[in-house]
Design a protein that fits this description.
66% of the residues lie in helices and 0% in strands. The chain has 7 helices and no strands. The chain has 2 domains: 38 residues; 95 residues, no CATH class.
Length: 152
């Protein structure tokens, strides 16, 4: 009985069964995304190109932290004050020591941010902002040290 089946017929039959099996699996697990694709609601994404982060996303880097609302608001206020301090220091040509003292003075107003996890984020943002201005060189350890030098 099996001698009437050639190897070619067997291979074609196996390929058809395997193809049918993969179609069933794809339809079972990917039916909804396939419908959306065929309707034109989504596009095929072959390569994901990294997008440059928007300015709003850079400013709202604090959203990932689960801090009390007041501390989060204080951190936002602190960073805006520090940005203003940087612009003032650039306009008035502050020396490095004057700038550090000014930053230290601003940091003293926010003792709760000093004790929170947002401190690291503020440090990183300040270092990145200071890198834009060559006269205001501030490293991460220096910025962290300014927190420790505050009197609060």
């Amino acid at each position: 009985m099996l001698s009437n089946i050639s190897w070619g017929d067997y291979a074609v039959t196996v390929l058809v069964v395997v193809l049918f099996w993969y179609i069933v699996v794809i339809l079972k697990f990917y039916l909804d995304p396939l419908k959306e694709l065929l309707k034109g609601n989504t596009k095929l994404k072959f390569f994901k190109t990294p997008k440059a982060p928007a300015v709003d996303q850079l400013k709202d880097l604090f959203a990932e932290f689960k801090e009390p609302f007041d501390t989060l608001q204080d951190a936002r206020e602190l960073f805006s004050k520090l940005e203003k301090a940087i612009s003032e220091a650039v306009q008035n040509n502050f020396s490095g020591i004057e700038f550090k003292n000014y930053v230290k003075f601003i940091l003293e107003e926010y003792p709760y941010v000093r004790k929170s996890t947002l401190r690291e984020k503020i440090n990183a943002l300040m270092v990145s902002e200071c890198e834009k201005h060559p006269q205001l060189i501030l490293t991460y350890p220096e910025m962290d040290g300014l927190w420790d030098e505050t009197i609060s």
